[in-house]
Every structure is written in structure tokens, then in C-alpha cells.
Amino acid sequence: MAGEGHRSSGRAVPPAEPYGTVARPRLDDLLAEGTRRRLVTVVADAGFGKSTLLASWAARNACAWYTVTAEDRTLAAMVTGLVDALRLRVPALSSTIAGVVDGPRGPDADAEQPMRALAYAAALAEALERHLTDDLVLVLDDVQELAPDDPAATLVEGLIRAGPPALHLVLASRSRVPFRIERLRGRGQVLEIDAGTLAFTAEETGEALRTVLGEPVPELAAMVHDAVRGWPAAARLAGEALRPVAPADREARLRRALRPGGPVFGYLAEEIFACESDQVRHLISMVAGLPWFSADLCAALGVADAEDLIDSLETRGFLVAGGDADRYQLNPLIREFALTRMPLDPVDRLTAVLDAGRYFAETGDYREALGCLRTGGDSTSVSDLLWAHGHAMIAGGDAEAVVDAIAAIDPDARDGVLDQLDGEARQVLGDWVGAQASFERTIGDEGPVAVGLAWRMGLIHHLRGHLDEAIATYRRGTIDGSEPREEALLQAWWASAHWLRGEIDECRQLSAAALSAAHAARDDRALAAAHTVLAMLAALDSDPRANAAHYLRALDHAERAGDVLQSIRIRVNRSSHHIAEAQYAQGISELDVAIRLADLAGFAAFRALALNNRGEALLGLGRLDEARAELEASRLLYQRLESKLVAHPLTNLGEVYRQRGDLAMARACYEEAISMAGETRDMQSLVPSLAGLARVLIEEQPDRATELVELARRAVSYGPVLGQSAALLSLGWVSLHRGHLADAAAAADEAAALSRRRRDRAGLAEALELKAAATSSVGPVDQLLEESLSIRREIGDPLGQARVELMLARRSTGERARELAASAHQRFLAAGATRYAAQAALAEERAAPPDVRVECLGGFRVVRDGTPVPLSEWPSRKARDLLKILIARRGHRVPRAQLMDSLWPGEAESVVSARLSVALSTVRLVLDPGKRFAPDHFVGADRASVWLDLATTSIDVEEFLRDAQAGLDAAKAGRPAQAVLLLRTAEAAYTGDFLDEDVYQDWASVLREEARSVYVRVAHYLADHAVESGENYSAASYSLRILQHDQYDERAHLALVRSSVMAGAHGEARRAYRTYVARMSELGVEPAQFPNSRGAERNFKAV
Fold first, then answer.
1. What does pTM read for this prediction?
2. At 485, is the pLDDT very low, low, confident or very high (cuts 50, 70, 90)?
3. How are the residues of the chain apportioned to helix, strand and coil, as percentages rounded to the nearest 5?
4. Start and end of every Bacterial transcriptional activator domain (predicted)?
């Protein structure tokens, strides 16, 4: 295992039952009862027989066992140990988990430790749920080695909460378990065994002495029991102290050992070792300071008859197995006694430690060798060992020990070999920044660089989206044909950076060189990298067959090489291929694997990209809420990584909001993406962002049509990037708004041709829609729209279907027009595209739009006679604010003085009174520019106050609150059918928080909080109803919408997990559960258990 420690060896089996173990049927019965629950804790100090009890019980029951050590505090060591232990009982358990943990960690592994721990817990839980046919008990001994902040503790907690119902855990520890279990305890899922329960009864104390002494000694047993208060270790040690004593002298010896007022165990140990030979005492003192010992090691240290002495001590219970059959450690209490009461002379101790270090080095136990040599202060031997075996240690899983050892060496004593070794070890461990610092100490700031260092350093910049720095670093690599494998990897990653920037010629030249070098090297890892970039080029060349073929070869080579990084990358890229061809389900399947691997390995940059692609696929399926959630997760992850590649999810978020009808949010996302992509010259994000922004602005500000055509032309001008068809379509739609039908039709034809070459069915469908919109002949238009509708149905795009249906409805008459509009209305509503649903509803009813409608949910917009009022018609921002304040006061009269203070705080009333009159006139003019109505028709005023007439003005927030309250009242009155109808209408109307662009304005906060609170109640009711009706995807959508407004809503989190489980989307359920656990952790709240499929139908309303 590369990265976090060696294999768990014999710790995956229970220790041998010590000779003379006392049978304890009452505790066996208690354990049998406890293992019908999720968790049993056995907590007591050393010497209470926890391990002995559990080992004895495990020997008679089919259990998985793992003994925890300090090494297991790291995540991969603990994962390895658990996999080793579980596979002994569940042979079908996949080795994939261990395979990932054995590989190098990503650059974000340390920062992602808690989420990685939960990901491993989920992977183990899923695997166990698939393969367990009967109940399984997993015993973890010595859990006190784990601290609450250790990722291994998070892993164990995650397994407890997320494991299948057939899994039961027993945790033995000297201190309380390192995570909260109050919630499990409250549900009756915990049995706790403490020191009081473990203490010997008087009968058990008597039996312990009888076993050691060979005869009953009731009087002595009573004395021991009273003195040690049932402490099993002390009772056993008392027997050992009396073993060599004549029966007549036992009571006197016992009274001397049990002197009052002192540590009983220490006194008993003194009595025992006072009678032992010098040889035994020396052996125990010498090995007390070693990580483990064996007969061979003791012999090498000069101990005569070591094997016989060790056998005797093991029989008497003074030793415990240290993993492998011939490796031992002292009983913890004996070891503590030896270190404090029987220490070696300092010179002898130093000699023993250094001799042991040399022994370990000779036997290949390099980790233990480093530890001993460092303890002995022999830095020269430490350096020699690292020079000779450092690379082998990294490959064997001891990278952490290498880093620690090098860090302890005086920097002035290090050379380039150790710095490079340190960098390689840190990169394996996921500390890529630390690795870069070590590499830079080796190579300096300028000049040529060894090719292997160049691509490793460049990749750090590359994955952060710093493309200029990445390319500059790649360029420094020395390419002379001497290391074809490393040269191929450098050229492949270098070509990929040019691909992102749209520098296709450079990409093509480097990718060809990479493939040639990879073939020369005959190396799977190099071939995987070369075929990956060739597949990316094929996508730009509109060659889907070559794209698919190269990715298949790349994945085959990556998996044969065991290269997790490239396996993740290839699957993410293959998903793009599937999504581009509108094969959304296949794309999501690829991404589920990629995300799971990225979660486990700690490659957060590729996890972010995978989430982005998943959001894009869900967008194609019309699942806007799920798409937004995935893209937001991607955006947040990229931002935490400080990566410029955040432009990717921002671009797709802009498209989600555009298709939902939230143009203000779409514009914000597109503009931020353009800023980010422009800095790095990332054409794959810049082009579709420019295209999307032009389409948003043409709807918001049609008077800027000429300017926006140039914006769209700019997007097209960048040439053959992945967003080229989107740019052509944008140019066509903007030209159409400008009235240039010929230009629109030409853009449609070019987009259609490109889409056919690339097998882009969604692009082709939209190109047909654009062509129809730019065509005046009735017959061809209907034919084009019907063809587009057929494609939309085939690829499973309900939003696309709705748009085409609405176009057809507007061209049709009678019943067909109403049916098409009704169908479009329902599809828009189901997807959450409420603004377009309203347009479809008007088409269905053939009703005229209201004279004035003000939209305040999710953004502010005034719609006059069905047409949005452009920003240019508002000469004053204060006039807009005045209208917003009046809406926030919900038709109530607002004193003029209060309005003036809100709009111009701190200014004299005499100065701003006239300004208020001007603002009021502006509002009236914007609402009724033709002066069709009386001045106070929409906004009334007198000398003291101003108010908005709700009877004449349609306001979305008022309509939402009215429908929501009516629906909630119907639910309370026991009319569920009416309630659902009203609440669905209300929920669909809530497109965002009230005036979310004025989040810091006090006058908006009261209505914002009221509307949000009502919305959460509405969505919870609809989510519960959807679950009861078996509408799992609808339940998930409602839960996601709640979480968009309150990410800590526990009920919504659990409803989302449960609905995903019931829908069979187990991967999504596990990821949603990990997010829930993370949010509860931020609040310091103990999470609930994962709702497994066997119990997912239970109602969580009370949680």
C-alpha cells in the first residue's frame, strides 16, 4: 500500500485465548444480547479483561476482528485493516476499496479527510449490504488509540451509522468512544458494558486463583477479591505472585503484596519479578522500549534461550501477539511497569535500540528500523537507510514514515536525493504543495528540470486551473529520449493544458509526441495519458468514433496500471462524450464510478469536474433541482481549491438558471464565468459563457440587440471548441431578436451541420427549432418543429419537449393548441421552470396577460402586458427601490417620512421631499407609460403616505402566500387533494427568496423571512405527499429546493436520502447522506443513521 502504513497482518484475527481464562457465561449472554443492536461498547481501564473476554467470545462466534494501533489513526491504514478483517468473513467483498487506498492520494486528500472517511464508510457499507446474507459482528479492540479528530474515528462512526442492518459493531476501549452516540442510545441501538460489569465476582476471583494455583483457595480468594475489588488483571497477578510460594506461606506473602494505600498492580508485579531470574528481568526491561520483538530479535540482542523464555511469558499472560505469529509485545500493564520500575541503564537502552534498528533494517522492516534509529539519535544511519531503501518504503506504504524521518534530519545535512525523496513521498501522501516545495529545493527557479519532476510539478498547477504556470513548468522538462515513460506523461499533460486554452495546434503536436514516447516505453500509464488527450482532440475534430476508441484504450491502460488518477479523469472525460451525444444516463453511470473513486482517493479537482458534468447531464434530463445542487457543490469545491476552473460549473449554473427562467441569476453566473475563464484563457468555458450571456441579455434588454449580436459573434470566433454549437445557436437567436431572419437561418444551418458531425442530438434539435423560428413558410416550420420534438422525446429532454410544444401551441388553434400548451405547462412546472410555465398557462387559457405584473421572488422584474420592462426604462434606481418598498409593505400605507428615510437615510426631509415625488412619478410612468389609467390606479398617494394597490397589480409573492395559506388550511382541514393542488401551484411560484438582490435591506427582511418560512412548510408537505405516493424523484426535488434555502434542514436532508434509496439511486443516497453528516457536524449535531432500503419506508417526520 502506498501512502499510509503497511498491511494489518495478524491484527485482523483475535488474539489467542490466554491459558487459564475464566469462563464468564453472564458476559457471554450479555454480548449475545448486545449484538442484536447496532453497537456494543466495552469501556474500562487496562486490566479489566476486555480483549480476553471478546477474544474468548469471538472464538465461539463468527466475528470479524481488528485490533487498532496508533498506526491506524491514518485513514488508509484503518481502511486496509477493516478490509482485511471483513474479507476473512465476507470473501466476496471487493478488493477495489483496498486497491484505491493502496494508490497515491490526490492533492486534496488531507483537506478532504472527513469526507474521504465518510466515502470509505459508504463504500464498505454498500459492499456489505450487497454481500451479507447473515448478521455479522465486527469487533474493534483498543479503540482508545483513535482520537475524536482522527479520520479513522470518522470512518468507524460512518460505518456504524451507514452500515447495513445486518452489521453490528463491538468497540472495546479504555476511554469512551471518540464520537457521540446519544442518538443511537436514545433509539435503543447501544448496549454499554463498563468496568463495573467486567469486574470479577467473588466466584470468578476464586476460579482465577484456582486455575493458577491448581486448587481452591477460598480464604485467599476472599482476601484478593476485597483488596482488588474484582479487577481481573490484579486477581490473575495475585495468583502468579502466589504460584512459587508454599501453601503455608501464601497468606503472609499475600498480605505483604496487598499493603494498603498503594498501587495494587505495582506491588503484585514487584512480588512476581522479585522471584524471577535476572535473565527474565533483563528480557522484559529490554523489549519494553521496542515496537515489537521476536525470539530471533532477542537472540540477536544477546538474550540466551530467548524462545523458551518467550514461551513461558506468553503462557503466563505477560505477552500479547504483536500481529504475525512470531511477533510479540508486552502486556500493556507489564510494559508500563517495566518502563517505570525496571528501566534499563541508559547506555544499555541506547545500545539495544540501535541494535534493534539495525536488525529491523536487515530483515526489511524499514519502518521499525527508522523508528529505532531515530530514537537512538543515529541520523547518519537514518540517511543511509533512506538513500538505500526510501523508494521501496514509499512503494511499500511507508511514505509517512519517510517524510517524518527526513523532517527530523538537519536541513543542512540533507542533499538533493533526500529532498526529491521527500517530494515523492509527500505527493503520494497527497501533500502536493509540500511536494512542490521539496522539488523546488532540488531544481531551483530556472533552467531545465528532470522530466519526471517537471510533469509532477506542472500537474499541481494544472489541477488548480493555473494553466500559465502549468505550461511554463512543463516546458522546463528535459526531453532527450532517455526516459520515454516520463516524457510521454509530460507531453500528454502539457497537451491537455493547451487543449483547455483552445491552442489546438500545440495540443496536436504534443499529443502525437506523447503517443510515440508511450509506445517506445511500452508503459500502460503513459499510454493511458496519451490516448486520453488524443480522445479530447477527436472531440474537437468532430470524430466521435475516434473519441470513443481512444477513451476505451486509455481506460484499459489506466486500469492495468492501477492508476486511479487517470481512471477518474478518463471516466469524467468519457462522461462528457456521452453527454455531448445526449446519452445522459450513460454519462451519469460513468460519473458515479468516477465520483466514488475521487472521493476515496482525495482527488477533489476531478470530483469537482465530475460533479459539474453530472449537473450538465441532469440538466439535459430536465432535472433542474438536482442539476443545480450538483453544480453548486462543484462550484463550492472549486472555490475552496482556489481553482480558476470554477468557470466550468458557473457556466452550467448559468444555463440551469436560464432554462429555469431566473435571468438575473443566470447573468451573474455567466459574467463570473467569463471573468474567470478569460484570466486563464480557458476556451472550453469562455465560449459557452459568452453565448449564454448573449441569450440572457437579449431577453432582459432587447434594445441592446446590435451589441449582443457582436457578443455572440465573439463566441463563435474562437473556433472549434466544445461550445462552438452553443455559440452558433446563440448568434442565431440573437439575430432573430434583431429581426435578421437570414442570419438566424444561416447560423441554424451551420449549428445543425456541426451537431450532426458531433452526434450532438440536443444541439441538432435546437438548431431545428431556431431554423423553424427563422422560417416564414408554415409547412416547413411545422415539419422542423415535429422533427425537433421527436429528438427531444428520444433523448429524454422534458424541458426541450416543453419549449417545442409551446412553439407549436402558439402556431396552432383549437383543442390541439390547448393540449400542446397544457403539456408544456406541466413539463415546465415539473422541472421548476415556473416563469416559462406561466407563459404556457397563458397560451393554454388564451388569456391576455395582466396589465402589470411584478416579480419579486428570485429577482426583481416588472412585466407590462406580458413584456418585461427593460432596465433602460428605469432612469432612477431609487424609483425601483420605492416600488420594492411598497411591495414589501404589502399594500399598507407607508408614511412619506419613512420612505424618505429608507431611500435617503440621514438627509433632511426638506431636501429629499421633492426627490420622493419624482421617484413616485417615475414608478407610475414605468407601470403605465401610455397613461391608460388614472395616476393612482397602481400606486396611490396623498400628502402623508404612499401605497401600492394590490387589487390592480399582480405580484408574485402575494399570489404565492395566498395559494400557500389556502393549501395549508386545506391540509389542516383534512382535504389533501385540494391541498396538494393549491400547494403545488404555490411551490411552483416560489422561484427564489423575496428580493434576493436586496438581501441587506431591512425593509425587505420581514417579508423575505415570512415567505421563506411558508415555502419550507409547503415543500415539506409536498415532499411527504410525494413519498407516500411513491413519487420519489418529486420528493427528492422538493427536498433539494428546501436545502437550497436552508442547508441545515435535517428533515429535508433525510427525506432526500430516503427518497433516493426508495428510487434505487443508492449512490446518490450515499452521497446525500455524507453531505447531511457534514452539515450536522458543522452544527455539532449527532447525525441519524442511514435509512437503509429495508427500513426506508419508515416516516421520518418526527426526526
1. 0.77
2. very high
3. 70, 5, 25
4. 955-1089
